[in-house]
C-alpha cells in the first residue's frame, strides 16, 4: 500500500511540475442546509425513561473553494461546519484534486464505499435504512452500507468511463481511540500517562475501502449499480445495490453483510459480535415539484431482528425550500420478550438548501 501511495504522489508531483502559479486565487463560497422537524412516536419500550423530543433539527454550513492551475488541474477544499454539536464542530474537511486522471481527496471524509453505495429510493425526513428513524424511537440502526464514517483518509476516484467509475480509500487508523500511551519511570516507579492524540475516531487499524459503480440513462429508463466493501481490523463488510428508473418511477434495493470481526484489532481482546445481514427495498414516484416513496428495510444480527418501513413525501415550495413528511413503523425482536420493541411515528417539517 505504501508503494502505491508513493507512486501516486510521484504522478501528482510530475503533473504539477512547472506550474508555480494558479490562474485565480481560491475564494471560499458558502452553502449548506437547515432542517427543522416536528413529530411524535409511540413505542412499547422506552429505554430512555421518557419520550423523544418532539422537535429536532440538523444544520450544516459548507465552505467550498477551488482554483484551476495553468495545466488545467483543479485544486480545492471543502469544510463542513456543524450547526449544533457537543463534540466535533467540523463534520468533514478535505482538499481535492481534479484532472484527467480522476479525483483525489485527502482529509476527514467518508470512504469511497460509503460515497458510492446505492440504496433503495427514499424521500422524506425519516427512512428505515440509516435514515434517522433511530432518532425518534429506541431501535437498532439498520444499515446496508455500514462504513467507518468520517476518517482522516486519502481517496482516489477514477474518471467516468461510459457510466463506470471506481474508487478506493485508505485511512491510517493505527492509534487506538486516537491516543498513544507511554510509560514514564521516575525513581524506580513506572507510571502510564497519556501521550500523543490524533483525530482518528476509529477502532485502531488501517481501513481500506473500495467500490465500483455504474450509472447511465437510456431511452426510457435509467440504471444505477454499485458493489462496495471495506476492511477494518480483522473483518470486512460487503454490499451491493441497484436502482432502476422508468418514467416517473424508480425502484431499487440493496444488501449488506458485516462480519463479526469487522472493526476489531489484534490489540482488542473483546469477543466479536454476531454477523450482520441487512437489505432494503423501495419505490419512489416523482411528479413535477412533488415526490413520494415507500421503503422497507430488514436487519438480522445474531438473535436480534429489526425491521422498519416508511412512507415519505417531498414537495418543493420554492428554490431551496422543500416541505417533507414521513410516517413510519418499526419492530425489533431480541432474545427475551422484555427487550422487544415496536411502534410507529410521524414527522414533518421544512428543509432549506442554500
Uncertain parts: 1-14, 16-20, 175-203
Continuous helix count: 2
Please list the strands of the largest sheet in the order they lie side by side. Answer: 1-2-3-4-5-6-7-10-11-12-13-14-15-16-17-18
Given the helix and strand composition, which structural class is it? mainly beta
Estimate nothing, just give the exact number of structural domains: 1
Structure description:
By secondary structure, this protein is mainly beta. It has a single domain (about 1-354), classed as Beta Barrel (Porin), CATH 2.40.160. Helix content is about 5%, strand content about 55%. The protein contains two helices and 18 strands. It has helices spanning about 1-15, 110-115, and strands at about 30-45, 55-70, 75-80, 90-100, 100-110, 150-155, 165-170, 180-185, 190-195, 205-215, 220-230, 235-245, 250-260, 275-285, 290-300, 305-320, 320-335, 340-354. The protein has a 16-stranded antiparallel β-barrel with strand order 1-2-3-4-5-6-7-10-11-12-13-14-15-16-17-18. A two-stranded antiparallel sheet has the order 8-9. A hairpin with a 2-residue loop joins strand 4 and strand 5. The radius of gyration is 23 Å and the shape is globular. The chain starts with a helix and ends with a strand.
How is the topology of this model organized?
Elements: H1 2-16, E1 29-43, E2 55-68, E3 74-82, E4 90-99, E5 102-109, H2 112-116, E6 151-157, E7 164-171, E8 179-186, E9 189-197, E10 207-217, E11 221-232, E12 235-246, E13 249-258, E14 276-287, E15 290-301, E16 304-318, E17 321-333, E18 341-353
Antiparallel strand pairs: 1-2, 1-18, 2-3, 3-4, 4-5, 5-6, 6-7, 7-10, 8-9, 10-11, 11-12, 12-13, 13-14, 14-15, 15-16, 16-17, 17-18
